[in-house]
């Protein structure tokens, strides 16, 4: 099933996502559909709230969208450790035409469940660490806009309103 990306200011993006108690065949299919959607939209990560599902599920592949060699699917991911700090230039599929620099942990340890329900622990650094943090932020209802100053957020809000007005006129 083709999924659509929810964009700001969709309310689902501001909610804390619910824990997944049981990995059902429907949720496995959702995860697969999310990876297809992520690749189709030239992304390297996608959280379930970004496709309108307020559950704790992310897909990440920092080799994508071209190579598609390291797809990671995590249910109920949580950061259990972090070290260092790095500045990261980031964009987001839910925030069209918006990029900003944010501070992230340089290394993270993330625990969750894979698509088969097995407990997994990932020790990540570099782009993978940044991407995992970004997607887990979505599960907490945190967007990049929450990590920038008021002026930059206000400017983006105005841009979104202009784009919405143009769409309504078309």
Automatic annotation (TrEMBL):
It catalyses: N-terminal N-formyl-L-methionyl-[peptide] + H2O = N-terminal L-methionyl-[peptide] + formate. Binds 1 Fe(2+) ion. Its EC number is 3.5.1.88. It is an enzyme of class 3 (hydrolase). SUPFAM superfamilies: Peptide deformylase (SSF56420). Fe cation binds at residues 92, 134, 138. Its cofactor is Fe(2+). The keyword Repeat does not apply. GO terms for biological process: translation. Transmembrane segments: none annotated. Keywords: Hydrolase, Iron, Metal-binding, Protein biosynthesis. InterPro entries: Peptide_deformylase, Peptide_deformylase_sf. GO terms for molecular function: metal ion binding; peptide deformylase activity. It comes from the Bacteria. The active site is at 135. CDD domains: Pep_deformylase. The keyword 4Fe-4S does not apply. Removes the formyl group from the N-terminal Met of newly synthesized proteins. Requires at least a dipeptide for an efficient rate of reaction. N-terminal L-methionine is a prerequisite for activity but the enzyme has broad specificity at other positions. Belongs to the polypeptide deformylase family. NCBIfam families: pept_deformyl (TIGR00079), PRK00150.1-3 (NF001159). This is Peptide deformylase. It comes from Oceanidesulfovibrio indonesiensis.
